[in-house]
Amino acid sequence: MQTNTLLEQLFPDGWILHAETPEFFDGTAQVGPGPVQFIGTSDAAEVGVDLALTMAKCVLDTVHHHPGRPIVFLLDTQGQRLRRRDELLGLNGYMAHLAKCVELARSRGHLILSLVYGQAVSGGYLTTGMMADACFALAEAEIKVMNLPAMARITKIPLERLEALAAQSPVFSPGVENYYRMGHVNTVWEGDLAGRLAAAIAGLRGQSLADTRRELGRERGGRSHAATVVERVLAHA
Predict the structure, then answer these.
(1) Which of 65, 114, 163, 178 is paired with 140 by a 20 to 30 Å CA distance?
(2) Which residues on adjacent β-strands are paired with residue 141?
(3) Mean per-residue pLDDT for 47-57?
(4) What's the number of domains the chain is made of?
(5) Is residue 235 a contact partner of residue 227, using CB atoms and an 8 Å limit?
(6) Whose CA is closest to 39, among 26, 50, 51?
(7) How confident is residue 209, by pLDDT bands cut at 50, 70 and 90?
(8) DSSP character string of 90-117
(9) Which residue in 5, 33, 28, 6 sits closest to 15, CA to CA?
(10) The pTM is what?
(11) Which conformational region is residue 76 in: left (phi greater than 0), alpha (psi within -120 to 50 degrees), or beta?
(12) Does the pLDDT of residue 79 top 90, yes or no?
């Protein structure tokens, strides 16, 4: 989905863009009774040191100037930028900084939501979408940590073996449906996106923000052991 189409469907009453580049945008919009801050990546953006710092600044500016305002990440990213410059500058540290800023916002009372409307891959997603209190995706979106050929090269496990495992377990498989089964994606959005967003924000305001992804994964059959193992460890801690 194109960015403008997404914004029109999410914010039918209008929005104000604060910044926009070919790979990034941010702004404010009215959702339900109050404003939200949206921070987005577009055109399958690569998240390098510059974009990570830009997004972190948007988060910190929201914390400083708009206490308690919900933050909505709108994501279309192919992952972290695999460039010599970014690696030499310490891209992992910049992305960790972005993740820390998101956690700071949460600790200051900001609700954090993410919506994948395009791609969501690897580190470009870990530091934003996966840090959210609740993660959502459009049905046509694509979520993955690593494709199977790349996984085979890194792990030295034959591609055929990984393909067989992917057929049996969503942990190895890309796709919104698999991430829903694992409990990471709360719900898949179709139809009235503005209504979905308003309901999601209202729902988060009225409930505990405890991380329930392990339990959801067990209920949905996507992660059958994670919650059980954690419960056993905590019982003997």
Answers:
(1) 163
(2) none
(3) 96
(4) 1
(5) no
(6) 26
(7) confident
(8) THHHHHHHHHHHHHHHHHTT--EEEEEE
(9) 28
(10) 0.90
(11) beta
(12) no
